[in-house]
Amino acid sequence: MNTWVFKINTKRGWEFDNYFRARTRGAYEMGDEDWIRSASSLRFLREEVKRGDLFLCYETDRKQVVGVARAASDGRDVGMGSLIDFCPPREAVRLKNPLTRKPDLDFILAFSPHRGRGTVQKIDRDEFRRLRSIMLRKNPEQAKELRRLLG
Fold first, then answer.
1. Are 24 and 92 in contact (CB under 8 A)?
2. Angle of helix 125-138 relative to helix 143-150, nearest 10 degrees?
3. I want to staple 3 with a disulfide (CB 3.0 to 4.6 A). Which of 35, 59, 123, 149 is the partner?
């Protein structure tokens, strides 16, 4: 299992709460070729993202991770509709206390300009261990749900 960050800018008219509040019982389409244009993001989706991978939902303009979801499909190539499906919203976790850019996400390359500006970025295993610990510490009332999802 790999861990990824899926970045959006709410100033462009979409928020992750649209996903977390959706009543969809099946997989939820996340992003198409008009939305995701970065060559590295498209390559990750086409070659590396697999069903069951974990996604941290990051709002770039608000500089916070607002939730966690699993991939309900492998990533797909352009011309096939959505490029990735997320698990049904009831299986995801919307964090009551989001992780903020400073100090929670300091030193995590996927949230820095050093890794690139694409919609989908890979999170290294050691960085994920740190993020997991911070999520659990900041959201003790959601620990059971988070542990189920995070493994």
1. no
2. 160
3. 123
Contact call for residues 38 and 118 (beta carbons, < 8 A): yes
pLDDT in tens, 94-122: 999 999 999 999 888 888 766 667 899 99
Number of domains in the chain: 1
CB-based burial label for 11 (10 Å; 0-12, 13-18, 19+): exposed
Q: How far apart are CA 141 and CA 130, in angstroms?
A: 19
- Token pair of 7 as six digits: 């970045």
Q: Which residues contact 121 (CB under 8 A, 6 or more apart)?
A: 4, 5, 7, 40, 41, 44, 110, 115
Q: What CATH number has the domain bearing residue 131?
A: 3.10.590.10
Q: Map tokens 């198409």 to a residue.
A: 32
Let me know: does 33 contact 78? Beta carbons within 8 Å. yes
Domain ranges, residue 21: 3-150
Rounded to whole angstroms, the Cα distance separating 139 from 134 reads 8
Q: Which residues pair with 64 in a beta bridge?
A: 59, 100
Q: Is the whole model's pTM more than 0.90, yes or no?
A: yes
